[in-house]
Structure formats: structure tokens, C-alpha cells
Specification:
- By secondary structure, the chain is mainly beta.
- The protein has two domains: 165 residues, no CATH class; 70 residues, Immunoglobulin-like.
- The radius of gyration is 24 Å and the shape is elongated.
Length: 254
């Protein structure tokens, strides 16, 4: 699972099984599991991809048998799209014994929002039915779901090439401003100075926001062109945002 940041516990769960490294089954240390990640694309359409490669399952690898085995294996990916979409992509697997991959839980996949591990409160969106074409069900009673007899995927696992797509819910009752004030800037990347073209009819305050979401500075933009000194900003990617909401991404290089 991937745990979201912030005060609430939001869980991204491409599998509900306890996965682990297969290394204990190989005395040479050559056969291992890996978590790989990469960032692809250009803003605002970037995709952060996480791959769980050649993972084993805890109930087999740590079964306390005299001979450690890791015959059940899987590879799958989670893609986090900058636009808000989440996708699961399932790769090759060698799963044949479903008692070893979800011995003490339900074999399935889904999303969990606002999860409270003490009360089992929260909202669960979970796959029910054969893994290649399940139905997704939503419930606010996670505790009840656990003891309802739900089987999730049952004795199935997604075939290689299977994928699930979770799209964000679009906001309602949000109107678009009829006269959107536009901001442009050049050169980009900038070195020592940045020229900002603001087409608003009055001066406006703007903030520099760094890649971690922190305020890195402030600026006052005049109608027309304003030249800003950026020599004191650390090199990196920033967002220059005005209070009305207009923003532009700027890269600073020194």
C-alpha cells in the first residue's frame, strides 16, 4: 500500500496482500525483490510510476518451514497522474496457491479514504469479482465489510496487462471567471532577472512557491511588464502565483 501524506490516512492499495522480499529464499542473495520508481512527462501531465518488481508474499516466505520458498511472485505498478488519475497496472506473476498470498486477509485491490486504524472508520472502494473484470463497490463500514463474507478477487489474480483506472471526481458548482487575467514570464528558465507580463488592470501581490509547497518569497506585479530580481532565489522549480489564482511555473538556474 501507499500511504498518503497529511492528517488523514488515504491508502492506495493495488493489492491487499502482505508482500515481502523474496531474498530469504535464495542463499546467494542474487534473487531479490525491488521497488522501482520514475517520473515521466512534462508538467502538467507528469506521471509518477512505482513498480513492485518480483515481490513475494509473507505467508509463504516466512512460513517457518525447514526450506524457505518463494514460488508465488508478482510484479505490478501504480501510476500517479499529475491530473489526479490513479492507475494500477499488473504485470507477470507465478501465483497458483491463493492460500499463500492472502492467508489472513481478503485477496483484492482498491482505495481507502480517511482510514482510522483504531476504529476501522473510513471509505473503502474495493474490487469484488474475478480480478480481470471486477466490480468496484464502495462502503463506509470497513469493519462490516471485513466480516461480511466478501471474497474480493477470490481465487484469482490480475492477468498480465490488466489495469484499473480511478479518475478524480470533478468539482460541482464551480464557475469559471469570465475575464481571466493572464500572466506570462520570460526568460524561462531565468537566471538573474525575470520579466513578468501581467494583463490585470491593477497592481497585484504574488508569491513564490517552491517545489515543496513552501513560500520562498513575494513580489509586486504592476499592470504590463514587471522585471523581478531572482538572483537571491535558490536554483530550482517554482510557481509564481497571484492571489486571484493565476499562476505560472518558473525554473531558476544560476
Amino acid at each position: 500500500m501507499i500511504l498518503g501524506a497529511g492528517n488523514a490516512n488515504h491508502l492506495i492499495a493495488p493489492v491487499f496482500s502482505d508482500i515481502c522480499d523474496v531474498a530469504p529464499a535464495d542463499s546467494t542473495g542474487q534473487d531479490v525483490s525491488e521497488i522501482r520508481h520514475t517520473l515521466e512527462g512534462v508538467a502538467p501531465n507528469r506521471i509518477f510510476k512505482v513498480e513492485y518488481h518480483n515481490v513475494g508474499f509473507y505467508d509463504e516466505v516466512y512460513a517457518m518451514d525447514s526450506v524457505i520458498t518463494a514460488s508465488q511472485r508478482a510484479t505490478y505498478q501504480v501510476w500517479l497522474h499529475e491530473a489526479g488519475t490513479i492507475t494500477y497496472h499488473y504485470g507477470p506473476n507465478t501465483i497458483t496457491d491463493f492460500a499463500l498470498i492472502a492467508a489472513d486477509f481478503i485477496n483484492t485491490s482498491g482505495l481507502i479514504g480517511n482510514f482510522d486504524p483504531y476504529s476501522y472508520g473510513g471509505t473503502l472502494l474495493v474490487a469484488e469479482g474475478a480480478a480481470d473484470a471486477p466490480q468496484f463497490q464502495s462502503t463506509d463500514d470497513i469493519y462490516g465489510w471485513l466480516y461480511s463474507g466478501a471474497e474480493g478477487w477470490g481465487d484469482t489474480w490480475p492477468s498480465e496487462g490488466t489495469g484499473y483506472v480511478f479518475n478524480p471526481i470533478q468539482p460541482t458548482n464551480v464557475s469559471t471567471p469570465t475575464n481571466l487575467e493572464v500572466m506570462a514570464a520570460f526568460p524561462n528558465p531565468a537566471h538573474d532577472v525575470l520579466h513578468v507580463q501581467w494583463d490585470g488592470g491593477a497592481p497585484v501581490d504574488a508569491l513564490w512557491i517552491d517545489a515543496q509547497g513552501r513560500i520562498a518569497g513575494a513580489a509586486r506585479l504592476q499592470p504590463g511588464r514587471t522585471t523581478l530580481d531572482v538572483a537571491e532565489l535558490d536554483a530550482g522549480a517554482y510557481t509564481l502565483r497571484v492571489k486571484e489564482g493565476s499562476a505560472i511555473r518558473i525554473v531558476i538556474q544560476h
